[in-house]
Amino acid sequence: MGREMEASVQMRLYALSKRQFVLVFTAFFLSFIVTVFIGLAGPPITDKVKKTAATLEARPTDFKTGPFVLRSPPMSTFHQQLWLIGQVVTNSSTEAGIQFTQPFQVSVQIQGLKEHNTNNVLLSSSAHNRTRELRCKGKTCDEMIFLHLGYLDYTDYVVTIRFYGLEEAIFSIQDVNFSFKSYNPAFTQLEIWFRFAFVVLTFVSTCAFAHSLRRFYMRDWSIEQKWMSVLLPLLLLYNDPIFPLTFLVNSWVPGMFDAVFQAAFLCGMLLFWLCLYHGMRQNERRFSTFYLPKVLVVGCIFIASVTLASWQAYNELQDPTYNYRLDTGNFMGFKVFFFTIGSVYLLYLLYLLIRAYAELRSMPYFDLRLKFMTALMLIVLAISVTITVLRFGISALQDNFIAELSTHYQNSAEFVAFYGLLNFYLYTMAYVYSPSKNAVFESHLKDNPAISMLNDSEDEVYGSDYEETSLTTRSSRRYESDEDYR
After folding, report:
1. Which three-class secondary structure state does DSSP give residue 251?
2. Exposure string (b/e) for 117-151, b if CB count within 10 Å is 16 or more?
3. Cα 137–Cα 138–Cα 142 angle in degrees, nearest 5
């Protein structure tokens, strides 16, 4: 079956020498390393204020029941969110390596204060009751998240916690360690400036890329150039230009938009990889046969991530003690579905990658496009996996299905590393895939693997006379013969 002829704008990729390729990758790594050092020098991501049941002003007489009355440190919008985490310490006589569990009920009542020394305002008319499981090893038990507030309406919070179902336990509770966790205001300021800088850089890169293609018809753009015109605006959303609204409006809406923007960009990048490795082998790209299977696979990942984020945000608005991992019966099925779709995507991508190399590796230009795209993609994936493993450990595929604040951050390096990596990845591709200086005059270059199979050298590819019309709206110049064109 013959393939349709398709002209394309010559990319800067074709004009780069080996030295220039080295400079491009060096600039990418240096930019990434600089952002990582900025993160290492930055403040801790979270603030943590510890309290113990034994030192509370209103100390309960029985630690198995409470009540534990806890007042949070002063909060502001720059603290973004608030978590209350507890850890039970027992007087268990079991050996240090013996594990035991004990189900019990937790009752949480929350009051908010607009200013100091004013009357408390109940955030809900009744206490929130949840079933939890106490998991202990020796005298130390696992931490439990008692509540999570997605945005802060008040400057202070008073939380009253009661335990039910531990009265008959065979062990006694020596103490309960409580921790109020929130985002560090210093980190919030760093995040605002960091996002703002990338929003500006992305906007400039998008305008520069669009300006470089202004002289060419869109139908003549290569598949990489078409996708970059989609990914750069998505990157602008990923950097979240409306992020400052989080501190101006006491609402969950800005945070929800941030989650949707990030999911849209990441899924757009996944779809880009599939389309690129398949599209270089095929010029007839009908929606039903080319795009639809890819959209279905990536769309499931997008819907799953957005659904889980919105589901948790909605339930936490109704009940701050909600925890999707403990309170959702279908969570395990949802987790299996997510990883199943992810496995299907990886197998599909691997299949397209192998087919592309098998068919195009010996063809001029196409082998160069494949090598550059694959090398940069593998670098990004390798760094992302490394950061994830360092951040979560090998339990990332088990308990840390979604990033939680219960993970211990020592600095801002993880945050700036992810944002810097993806931004510089797109900037590098935008530079390499932009039109070369001679793109107007090299207007006869073809984006068709069939042409490469008919020619033995790169000069013959340039010398092909299959396309005689100019790719630009400003140039009506024609080459009189192939010899003049060379």
Report:
1. coil
2. eeeeeebeeeebebebebebeeeebeebbbbbbbb
3. 40
The answer to whether 459 and 371 have CB atoms below 8 angstroms apart is no
pLDDT digits (tens, 9 = 90+) for 123-141: 666 788 888 888 888 778 8
Tell me which residue of 351, 7, 39 sits closest to 187, measured CA to CA: 39
Which residues are within 8 A (CB) of 68 and not within 5 positions of it... i.e. 6 or more apart? 53, 56, 60, 160, 161, 162, 176, 178
Token pair for 180: 């109020």
- Cβ–Cβ < 8 Å for 70, 162: no
Identify the sign of the CA torsion 389, 392, 398, 402: negative
How far is CA 394 from its chain centroid? Answer: 19
Task: List beta partners, residue 275.
Answer: none
Residue 351 C-alpha from the chain's centroid: 25
Evaluate whether 143 touches 87 at the Cβ level (below 8 Å): yes
DSSP state letter for 74: P
138 Rama class: left (phi>0) / alpha (psi -120 to 50) / beta: left
For residue 90, list its beta bridge partners: 173
pLDDT in tens, 408-440: 445 678 788 888 999 999 999 999 988 877 765
Q: Which amino acid is at 476?
A: S
* CA 116 – CA 74 distance, rounded (Å): 9
Cβ neighbours for 486, distance < 8 A, ≥ 6 positions apart: 459, 462, 463
> 398: which residues sit within 8 A by CB, 6+ positions away?
none
Strand partners, 133: 103
Q: Are 274 and 349 in contact (CB under 8 A)?
A: yes
- By residue count, the chain amounts to 486
Alpha helices, H only, 59-184: none
Rounded Cα distance, 192 and 243, in Å: 8
Question: How many helices and strands (H and E) does the chain possess?
Answer: 13, 10
Beta strands in 54-150 (DSSP E): 68-71, 82-90, 99-113, 121-122, 128-137, 140-141, 144-149
C-alpha to C-alpha distances, 29 to 26, 35, 91, 193, 380, nearest whole angstrom: 5, 10, 52, 22, 11
pLDDT at position 121: 62
- Express each pLDDT in 234-251 by its tens digit: 999 999 899 888 888 877
| Preceding amide of 67 cis, omega within 30 | yes
Q: How many angstroms separate the first and last alpha carbons of the chain?
A: 31
pTM recorded for the entire structure: 0.77
477: amino acid identity, one letter: R
Q: What is the CA radius of gyration of the chain?
A: 28
Residue 375 tokens, joined = 């090398």
One-letter-per-residue 3-state SS of 458-484? HHHHHCCCCCCCCCECCCCCCCCCHHH
